[in-house]
Amino acid sequence: MNVNRRHLLTGTVGAAAVALTASACASEDGDSGSGGGKKVGIAMPTKTSERWIFDGDNLKASFEEQGYEVTLQYANDVAADQVSQIETMIGQGVNVLVIAAIDNKSLNGVLAQAKESDITVIAYDRLILDTPDVDYYTSFDNTKVGTLQGTYLVEKLGLDAGEAGPFNIELFAGALTDNNTKYFFNGAMEVLQPYIDGGQLVVLSGQTDLEQVATENWDGAVAQDRMETILTSFYTGGQQVQAVLAPYDGISRGIIAALDGQGYTTMPPVTGQDAEVDSVKYIIDGKQAMTVYKDTRALADVTVDMVVAVIDGKEPEINDDSTYDNGDHVVPAHLLEPVSVDVTNYQAELIDSGYIDEADLA
Ligand code: BGC
C-alpha cells in the first residue's frame, strides 16, 4: 500500500478530492505549512492490522507536510498502554491529539487531562464514548460498511432475485470495545434479518446476538477458533455453511482457515473489510468473496484538514452532525464513503487508484 501524497490523491481518488480543502495545497517542504512547529500526538491501536500502519504513516506524512511535529504511537491493542501513551503526549505539550481508541470507554480520565491543557481531540475512525472532551470525529459511514457486506451476501445467494434457500449462514462481528462494531453489525443485520425471519437464511449455531458473535480484539485466531467450534458442533450431519458475515479481513481469513481445515474445497461467500493485501489475494483466488475498501489516505487528509482549520481558528468541514452521539454529546463528524470490492472491481478501485501496488499481489 502506498503512503499518502496529496498531490497524487487529487488526481486519482474522487471521494478524496471532494474532501480536500484549500489547505491541501500547502507546501510540502515540511516546515512552512500551517503547523508552524505545533505538535500532534497520534495514538493508533495496533500494528497487527495493516490498515492502522497505513493510517499512522499517512497521518504522520500529511501532518509533517503541514509543518507539524508528530509523535506516533501504537499500543498493541492494550487499552491501558494507550492511555499511558496519551498521557506522555500530553506531557510533551501536544496541541492536538488524534486517537483511534482501543477501548472506547477507557479514555475519559486522560481526555479530561487533555482538555485542561486545551488540547484539541479528534476521535479517528472509532468514536470515543461518554466524555465531553472529544471535539470532532472523522470516519466512514460505518452503517453502510455493514449494509454493503449484508447486501453482497444476499445478492451472491440470489435471495434478492427470489432464491428460496434455505441457506446456512454464520455471523461474526468485531470487538465490543470498538464503537464501530455495532454499526457494522446492525447495518448488515438490517439487510439479513428479514431473510432470517423468513427462513431463507438459517443460522444453525443459533448465535445471532452481537454479544455471541463478537470477536475479542478483532483477532483472526479467535474467530478461527469460534468457526471451528461451530463447524464441529452444529455441522455434523453433512450440512454446509453457505455464507459467512465477517466484519474485517483478518477475521475473514481466520474463518476461511477454519473452513479449509474442515475440508471445504469451495469457499462459501465470506465478507470482509479494509482491503488488506492478503485478503485481496484471497479475493483474486476465489477464497474470500469481498472486502469493504475504505481509503485511509482520504481519511488522513480529512483529519489533517480538520486540524489545520481548528488551529487556524476556522470552521472545519463537517458533513454529519446527527449520527454520532457519544453518550455526552453529538460529535460533529466528517464521514467518508466505503466501497464494496470483489474480483470484478478490485483492479479499478484498489490498483488503478494507487491504494495497492499490483506487485504486492503477486
Ligand atoms: C475499523 C475497521 C477495522 C477494525 C479492526 C474498526 O474500528 O473501522 O476498519 O477493520 O477496526 O481493526
TrEMBL record:
Residues 40-315 form the Periplasmic binding protein domain. Keywords: Signal. Its main location: other. Residues 1-26 form the signal peptide. The keyword Repeat does not apply. It holds the Pfam family Peripla_BP_4. It is found in: Cell envelope. It comes from the Bacteria. PANTHER family: D-XYLOSE-BINDING PERIPLASMIC PROTEIN (PTHR30036). This is Sugar ABC transporter substrate-binding protein. It comes from Glycomyces endophyticus. The gene is chvE_2.
